[in-house]
Amino acid sequence: MTTTEIQNKLLPLESYLLNFAYSLTDNRDDAKNLLQDTFLRIYKYGDKFEMGSNFKAWSYTIMKNIFINKYNRLKYFRLNILYTITAEISITSCSYRSNDTDPLSIYATKELRLTIKTLDENSRKPLEMHIEGYKYDEISKKLGLKIGTVKSRIFFARKKLMAKLADYQY
């Protein structure tokens, strides 16, 4: 399929694709970016389109797949940020390292500590112990909980932290 053929088929779909992108992202700017990414992908792989197939459905599928891939990548990236932050705090045992003089790092650590304190006791205590360096089985014995309960509480505490610290995620 030539670029001209793609353009002739794609331009009438632009408003429909933009609306679909908006329904996926709930944000005009993100929807426009998704539309642009979709157009680029369609132009790049236009030779893969089978003539006689439904071009509109093919375009929607490309957009949906781009959105899903970006969402999964972003979700994975955000989880890694939180795990890295909690691991870093674990290494420092909730105290500053002597060479850690970066104001942004100091502020982020303080902010994280304050946010951890807002968690309910059932979530906060296992997470704090984990951050302090206790192993799951040690936390389990100290708190009188099953090891699966400890892991679950730490996992959900991290998720709560992610939600509360959403402004710090990029």
Description:
It is a single chain. The protein is an all-alpha fold and 170 residues long. It has two domains: 3-72, RNA polymerase sigma factor, region 2, helix turn helix motif (Rna Polymerase Sigma Factor, Chain: A); 93-168, Winged helix-like DNA-binding domain superfamily/Winged helix DNA-binding domain (Arc Repressor Mutant, subunit A, Orthogonal Bundle), CATH 1.10.10.10. The chain is 75% helix and 0% strand. The chain contains eight helices and no strands. The chain has helices at 3-10, 14-25, 28-44, 55-92, 103-117, 121-132, 136-143, 147-164. α3 crosses α4. The longest helix has 38 residues, at 55-92.
- In helices, the fraction of residues equals over 70%
- The averaged pLDDT comes out at 80
Q: State the order of secondary-structure elements, H for helix, E for strand.
A: HHHHHHHH
Summing up helix and strand content along with how strands pair, one would put the structural category as mainly alpha
From the 3D coordinates, which CATH architecture of the largest domain would you assign?
Orthogonal Bundle
CATH names the topology of the largest domain as Arc Repressor Mutant, subunit A
Give the DSSP E fraction (strand runs of 2 or more residues).
under 5%
**CATH homology superfamily name of the largest domain:** Winged helix-like DNA-binding domain superfamily/Winged helix DNA-binding domain
Main sheet: strands, sense, barrel: none
* Strand tally: 0
Q: How many domain units?
A: 2
What overall geometry do the principal axes of the alpha carbons give?
Answer: elongated
Low-confidence residue ranges: 90-99
In DSSP terms (H or I, runs of 4 or more residues), the helix count works out at: 8
Radius of gyration using CA atoms only: 23 Å
End-to-end gap: 38 Å
Query: Which CATH class of the largest domain is shown?
Result: Mainly Alpha
